[in-house]
Prior knowledge:
The protein contains 23 helices and 14 strands. By secondary structure, it is of the alpha/beta class. The strands form 4 sheets. It has a 6-stranded mixed β-sheet, with helices on both faces. Helix 1 packs antiparallel against helix 6 (about 150-175). The model has no long low-confidence stretch (mean pLDDT about 90).
Amino acid sequence: MSRARLVLGMFVAFMLAAPLALPEFHVTLLNYIGLYSIVTLGLVLLTGIGGLTSFGQAAFVGMGAYTTAFLTTAYGVSPWLTLLAGLALTFAVSLFLGFITLRLSGHYLPLGTIAWGISLYYLFSNIEFLGGYTGLSSLPEINVFGVALDTGRKFDYLIWTLALLALLSMHNLLDSRSGRAIRALKGGSMMAESFGVDTARLKTIIFIHAALLASLSGWLYAHLLRFVNPTPFSINAGIEYLFMAVVGGAASVWGAVVGAGILTILKQWLQDLLPRLLGQNGNFEMIVFGVLLVLLLQRAREGIMPLVLRYFPAPKKLPQAAAQELPRRAQPACGESLLELTRVRKAFGGLVAVNELSFAMRSGEILGLIGPNGAGKSTVFNLVTGVLPLTSGEVRFRGERIDTLSARAIVPYGLARTFQHVHLLPTMSVLENVAIGAHLRGSKGVISAALHLERAEEAMLLAEAARQLERVGLGPSMHEQAGSLALGQQRILEIARALCADPVLLLLDEPAAGLRYQEKRALAELLRKLKSEGMSVLLVEHDMDFVMKLVDRLVVMDFGEKLAEGLPQEIQTDPAVLEAYLGGVK
């Protein structure tokens, strides 16, 4: 048994025994830690992993609490039905708020969450049938299989059962195809979109997921106390939840429990200690929290849990050699018309980056796109792959126009790319980085992932990623963190990720940059092998020795325009090219 499983087993055993053995006060603290852990878990997903900072989660806690408080006291509805009602209401409200909030970026996003968090707090406080600032009382107890949860000791089991289920489902979600896409939202959105990930939809999904967890916690809170008023759902509470996520480890699932536990216990201790030291009551613990948070961010920016996990490393995700292979795309016949650019133009205000560029390539060839720095080569890549819209002109792929499509919509046509500047997720393994390339070759969504129902598909995706890593010579490094690889290896990793998408056309943006001589030779051999298998390659590169020995044809750009086009030996002797770019190459 691994150390991680042993610790988990000990934790579950403790939670089973704690309500029977601990004093009432400590059981109450455990209940609150469980409630806060559920809310903080949503913030781990939303903020720590998804990169979307929210200060308004306490408002969703209030939504779940007030829904059950009103329906049970005013109409006598069963608490279990009010749970469903609260989740449905939270879903609708969070969908609307997510639609208008997630369009914001930078500091405007957290400011937006503060705005609706405050608004919902005052809504709870000023609606008469919700009891105003006085609130609602005499909520009924919850019954589970005929057992009334009328004490904190009994309620503890329900809270921690739901908390552990939420933790397990979150772990399952993040350890999946959808989880890799979610982890790419923070710092890798453009790369993810280039492999078919709908980042806008994923942001909405994790926003709603976090809101539903907060609403569940609110329902539990209301029936634990059997009383609800607006105070626990203010913006201050929202800030405390964010504190818990940061302290525990904003990108760690179990960091939610660690952060909730530390702050809950520390807050209670400080509320007892500080009045004795200062001689007066007040929220002085918030000052201490602020100082401790600054110190923590200086010493352990990722929170406490990542430090602990160094001693409990996660097991390696071993691809299953016997996993069924993913279906493969039929490659076009050699010589078939593949990519055609017609009078393509791209202007950024008054700066024309690409001007009236036209060229075509056929299936089965390696076409080089060369030119001086600033000639517009990478811009052409971004136009072809939908990262940038055209100002005018047309781009056709296998006869169909693709210049009106987004990057995500172009991927299914069979285009895959690398980037001029490496776009990887450095803390993820090499294997998982490559598996992102196969995102559209899977279909299971977040619900299947959370319920652990996508294991067969996940095995196929990881096996495909492993095959592509072996194909490019990075098989021995598949379990290392991508950020630990040398730059040259990272560029090879990007090629493996692109191959994982099963493309018809491979677009490589300066793949030899940073590679040593032997690595360049290996890359050239790999590209020749891909060509022999029917793969077509559009290549941007500055290493002329590498390019001239590899490509079938060349297109030369200068100042955004096509300067020349032809065979390598023709380009090497073209006077205009020699003057503009190649200099002394003979």
